[in-house]
């Protein structure tokens, strides 16, 4: 058996500590499988005194991850520091420049600097593995980089943020408000004190940017993603969706179209019968549509120290076996430019909820606006809510429209006209419907 | 870029023809990703004249796959002949002995000779890849061999036969009999003219035998699997299961227990809320429970020429990249012996359907038999079926029992006693309940 592979772990939060523990608990099994013992020989974190429940006594300690990347006696640098730049970026660059292999769980770093880092890694014959950066414990990076490499991918989509899925699931199951579910998610540690990054869809967008590159062999383009979070979703929407046979999920979708590649993150109506509709709670799921394989879906834990450590260690084991894959599936120098398909051309069905003033002709005006924009309606649901008194007062009544396939441009235009006519009491709610089998 | 990797494809049925087509259609993409062009340079099949919709003119033709394995000018031998011995086995052995890499979709061959062939491959520094042998287009072999290699697996289970799942799904959805659904499956090409191999669970058992070895690092042991097919499942069972919150699926399950490893294939009651319950039609799904990752589930097409070709080509691409993995995850010489946990010790809940003679004391006798065997009952459902006249004639009435966790031994003993007392009109139906989250 070869010499031990020496690992340096930068960042000893829940993931880092779990990686150290996994390598200690299952080191023998891993050595047997990969043909090479793996040993953590250096670690880096801010607070040396903190008890992390693992024995670090045999490892060299570095206060600074960049110093560890530059000088530690290691073969693989594991970056679990986090952040799209700063110490994470500096240490990864330093490690790759030395020809060290790098394993990272850092989606923000890859979304921003992925192509650059891939070039650097490939110039130095170093591996850059990042299974844990997308969907935690789910092996979607390897599946796309290797298992589906013979397919032309037409679409990749998924539930990539457990916080949002937890909130949407509880809103539906228990009829609770967004705010109440978010507060619970924070209490349970599923959401940060500042939840913006999760609930506004940015976390999903980072992961999607990586998946898009893997799916289509294009350069990562995270700044061009259409991003809409879940804060505008109400229990009324969830209830109406359910009555119409849909669930609402925050999806990240990348799809090849005639005009380029769409990358979009938004609340999405998915048919209840679809597999993705049935992913509940903090779980993640990613689906890939390939021309030969059809659709493959992977489901599992998208976060958590132990699940994420499972992916980090799989990346390490690949390096131990000598398995080298282009960082983004295709060699970085050969990636195609990303050609963006703008959202206005997005084609699909739409759910529209309007608060319509209860007066003669209002509904006819709405119907005319839709017809003028060439939008056909699949369903129209108007149900009076509230008491006889509220009807007497002519309070706005909710009207739900489901369109047949049309374009984003047409819908936006129609809704602008409807608003300008003064027949609705509030800005319309609009949720895209994803075509799924 | 390196020299082209030369492929010999033995067997040109739907899968073989799809592999040739995939390599022709996506050859450039594959070469870019794996760093090496891949080219089919030899083929073998019985009938040279048949039109397979692909251009074979540039390839050397062999009538005999063994001759091709022995003498063709190739780097990889792709075995798509089928069968657990004969030409498939002979050609694979011949290829490995020459040091050729082998890719196969042949589950029967691996279930029977997998350890032997793995030893042979590893002695000759050859790869033996078989992603397509388990669950068609789903990348479960790579996931277990590589992505989850850091985990101690406690259980792997799945829906591994699309024919059975199609039949069970239609029986539930449309209330049709087993026979009617089987006939439809045959008409649609989902089932063979002789469906025994599928519906009696043997196909599932072959795939399970491979998964067990990958999960636990043990030698393949396909002869010791407990196998029970779906022919005894009635619409009455499916209906009763549904009322109690379950679906019936044919599962293959391998599970570590205190006394060894259980390998079992049988109709299984799974909670409707579980992910596996929601896999409908010809789809396959495999779930792996690992100590770090938790549960990961992969869903996709388990059969079909194109989906299977996707997996065959992924195996080829791995070889093109130079990725070498022990055939069964662990080097074959280091696999542990398989220690069988007998079915009598199997612990779980049970569904029992009895046809009870409608006379005083019958039910008390059944309850006493269960109590004597120390079996606690979670539910008892007795609903008179048929007309007042049938009740008048004291025809047997169905009684459904759901037990709490007990052992197979206790259940079998209790059911034997119940039958010996003459209170039931037919052999009891017994379906195991799988504990799932």
Automatic annotation (TrEMBL), chains A, B:
GO MF, one example: homoserine dehydrogenase activity
Catalytic activity, EC: 1.1.1.3
Keyword NADP: yes
Chain sites annotated for binding NADP(+): 10-17
Family affiliation: Belongs to the homoserine dehydrogenase family.
Active site: 207
Highest rank taxon of the organism: Bacteria
Domain called ACT: residue spans: 351-432
Matches recorded under Gene3D superfamilies: 3.30.70.260, Dihydrodipicolinate Reductase, domain 2, NAD(P)-binding Rossmann-like Domain
Keyword Amino-acid biosynthesis attached: yes
Pathway(s) served: Amino-acid biosynthesis; L-methionine biosynthesis via de novo pathway; L-homoserine from L-aspartate: step 3/3; Amino-acid biosynthesis; L-threonine biosynthesis; L-threonine from L-aspartate: step 3/5
Alphabetical list of Pfam families matching this protein: Homoserine_dh, NAD_binding_3
Stated name of the protein: Homoserine dehydrogenase
Residues the entry annotates as binding NADPH: 107
UniProt binding sites for L-homoserine: 192
Class in the EC hierarchy, top level: oxidoreductase
InterPro entries, A to Z: ACT-like_dom_sf, ACT_dom, Asp/hSer_DH_NAD-bd, HDH, HDH_cat, HDH_CS, NAD(P)-bd_dom_sf
Segments forming a coiled coil: none
GO biological process, alphabetically ordered: methionine biosynthetic process; threonine biosynthetic process
Keyword line: Amino-acid biosynthesis, Methionine biosynthesis, NADP, Oxidoreductase, Threonine biosynthesis
């Amino acid at each position: 058996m070869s010499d031990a592979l020496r690992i340096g772990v930068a960042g000893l939060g829940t993931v880092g500590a779990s990686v150290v523990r996994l390598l200690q608990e299952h080191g023998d099994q891993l050595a047997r499988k990969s043909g090479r013992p793996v040993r953590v020989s250096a670690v880096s974190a801010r607070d040396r005194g903190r008890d992390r429940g693992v024995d670090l006594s045999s490892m060299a300690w570095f206060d600074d991850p960049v110093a560890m990347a530059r000088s530690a006696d290691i073969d693989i640098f594991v970056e679990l520091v986090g952040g799209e730049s700063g110490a994470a970026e500096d240490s990864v660059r330093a490690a790759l420049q030395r020809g060290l292999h790098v394993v990272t769980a850092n989606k923000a770093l890859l979304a921003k600097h992925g192509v650059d880092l891939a070039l650097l890694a490939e110039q130095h014959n170093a591996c850059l593995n990042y299974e844990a950066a997308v969907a935690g414990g789910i092996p979607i990076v390897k599946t796309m980089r290797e298992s589906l490499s013979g397919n032309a991918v037409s679409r990749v989509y998924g539930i990539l943020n457990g916080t949002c899925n937890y909130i949407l699931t509880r809103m539906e199951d228990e009829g609770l408000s967004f705010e109440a579910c978010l507060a619970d998610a924070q209490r349970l540690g599923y959401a940060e004190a500042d939840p913006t990054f999760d609930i506004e869809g940015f976390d999903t967008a980072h992961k999607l940017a990586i998946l898009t590159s893997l799916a289509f062999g294009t350069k990562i383009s995270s700044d061009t993603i259409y991003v809409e979070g879940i804060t505008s979703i109400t229990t009324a929407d969830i209830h109406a969706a359910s009555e119409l046979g849909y669930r609402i999920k925050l999806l990240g979708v990348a799809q090849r179209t005639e005009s380029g590649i769409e990358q979009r993150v938004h609340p999405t109506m998915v048919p209840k019968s679809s597999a993705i509709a049935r992913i509940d709670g903090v779980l993640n799921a990613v689906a890939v549509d390939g021309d030969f394989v059809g659709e493959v879906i992977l489901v599992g834990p998208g976060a958590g120290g132990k699940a994420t450590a499972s992916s980090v260690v799989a990346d390490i084991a690949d390096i131990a076996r000598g398995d080298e894959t282009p960082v983004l599936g295709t060699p970085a120098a050969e990636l195609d430019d990303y050609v963006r398909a703008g959202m206005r051309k997005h084609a699909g069905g739409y759910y529209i909820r309007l608060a319509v003033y209860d007066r003669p002709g209002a509904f006819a005006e709405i119907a005319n606006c839709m017809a003028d924009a060439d939008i056909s309606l699949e369903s129209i649901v108007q149900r009076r809510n509230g008491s006889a008194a509220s009807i007497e007062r002519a309070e706005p009544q909710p009207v739900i429209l489901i369109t047949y396939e049309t374009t984003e441009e047409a819908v936006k235009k129609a809704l602008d006209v409807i608003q300008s006519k003064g027949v609705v009491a509030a800005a319309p709610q609009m949720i895209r419907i994803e075509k799924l089998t």
